[in-house]
Amino acid sequence: MTFHPYLSRLQPYPFEKLKRLFAGITPNPAYTPISLGIGEPRHPAPQLIKDALCNSLQTLSAYPLTAGSEALRKSIAGWMANRYAIPAPDFATEILPVNGSREALFSLAQTIINPLVAENGPPLVMCPNPFYQIYEGAAYLSGAEPYFVNADPARNYAPDYSTVPESVWQRVQLLFVCSPGNPTGAVLTLEDWKELFELSDRYGFVIASDECYSEIYFTDEAPLGGLQAARLLGRDYSRLIMLSSLSKRSNVPGLRSGFVAGDAEIIRQFLLYRTYHGSAMNPMVQAASVVAWQDEEHVRENRTQYRQKFEKITPLLAETLDVQLPDAAFYLWAKVDHLGGISDTEFARALYERYHVTVLPGSYLARDAHGINPGANRIRMALVAEVEECLEAAQRIVAFCKELQS
């Protein structure tokens, strides 16, 4: 039996690596398990979304449109106009509902990448490093190769695109950005966007802006979005697509509801692809999504919970870890190599064994590129549980770090 040859290029997902790392370990039975490893929202789903799902059972009797209902696309357009202070995108041509940003990030590359026009090697998909592993899989399965640009701590973890050779830029067809970033929580500035747009103009690649963490932030200033940056710089949305989701914003990761918006020609081609791919959103999910995008009260309440957690936990962890409050998102990205030279994998394994707390090694979220793995000697902690559980985990981590320092 034969399979698609590009499947062999895919690496195990970070959580599969974590499972292998913990193999054979019996955690300390004195502690209940606490996981900060997976970025899965665990605040309760809003009641208004549950009610909308239950009240739309009658919609199951008809096939949904791949383009989504007009009501859904209009609700997304209205939310975008209010959130980003931009003219509402054309709901008919510039917005497309998707089954969560994850599947859209992957399938978008199938629409964008043209392996037949590559010169001097396969086309490239440029990714930040560390990165969301879907970017890499999307590159390989579209017939391209990923090219990683390492996050620079001195630039608030923004990739330094000035280090990329001209010969590389000439092969780039798609560039992924993630702002707020996973795992760093860093937000791109207007100057960062200006640089990216100028590079896109020069080399003709598409920018895919992953903005699924945009509604979790810790100051009064909401993170800048890609389409918003384009408007502020007097641009249209040429070669620009943003992706967003209800998963983190509204605590409904199981709903699998998001959207893409931007360049109308890309949206048109993506709709064609998705029509054949069978990617229409469940009509009940569409009805619930309309309600979710039209309500901000539950989003503000959710953001308040995260702010309260990070205000309590970040200073506590900073007593022993090299960590600081991020710009946004729900991760803490901490250095650990100052603790007796311990590696990120050694830290995660020993913490799990002694204190039954799970964190994700940073090296699992990055690739060796340009001589380094920029995730090495860091850990990612997802503060997604209720505050009491996160606080208990933080106290155990501090105790563990003090053991390492003694």
TrEMBL record:
Its cofactor is pyridoxal 5'-phosphate. InterPro entries: Aminotransferase_I/II_large, DapC_beta/gammaproteobac, LL-DAP_aminotransferase, PyrdxlP-dep_Trfase, PyrdxlP-dep_Trfase_major, PyrdxlP-dep_Trfase_small. CDD domains: AAT_like (cd00609). Its EC number is 2.6.1.17. It is an enzyme of class 2 (transferase). Keywords: Aminotransferase, Transferase. Gene3D superfamilies: Aspartate Aminotransferase, domain 1, Type I PLP-dependent aspartate aminotransferase-like (Major domain). One of its GO terms (molecular function) is succinyldiaminopimelate transaminase activity. Pfam families: Aminotran_1_2. The keyword Transferase applies. GO terms for biological process: lysine biosynthetic process via diaminopimelate. Residues 34-397 form the Aminotransferase class I/classII large domain. The keyword ATP-binding does not apply. This is Succinyldiaminopimelate transaminase. The lineage of its organism: Bacteria, Pseudomonadati, Pseudomonadota, Betaproteobacteria, Burkholderiales.
